[in-house]
Amino acid sequence: MIRILLAEDMHMVRGALVALLNLETDIEVVAEVASGDAILPAAQEHRVDVAVIDIDLPGKDGLTAAEEIHEHLPECRTLILTSLNRPGTLRRALAAKVSGFILKDAPADRLANAVRGVAEGRRVVDAELALSAWDTADCPLTSREIEVLRMAAAGANPTEIAARLYLSAGTVRNYLTTIVTKFQARNRVDAIRIAKESGWL
Hints:
Low-confidence stretches: none
């Protein structure tokens, strides 16, 4: 029996996914959570084999939670669900060492088979996502620039970002100017939009 943790913040969607997975004779959903912060504690408590995680969760996004599972509970596989066909997101998922990555609107049998595949130690990636990632350029930002932009996207101003990263406010403003230039964006808000749409944030 494959023991599953399901992380999905939309209650009706989570209920439907639990019902679908529990119809399978070899799969059992033993834990359900609605936020990214709850994933690792629940996975540790229930000793799950596979964590099925929605990519967009409150508290902590699905990829960050998957990275934590990989670090603290390496025997647990992670399968990311997304409703967004963003190639950059797939690249981030692979970098986070997730075991699988499929679209939320995939047929029910594909989800169950993906769970079985990752439980067996295989990497399962939706073909449509894989093809779009193949055709997409890498993110032009450095890891520090992504960190700065992620904080800006969360609403932090340059002074707050500088304090958190132990930089000067001027250095942070330089990073933001460089980001806008690299994206050929109109401004910081436009740069955040471009990064999100490309799946780089």
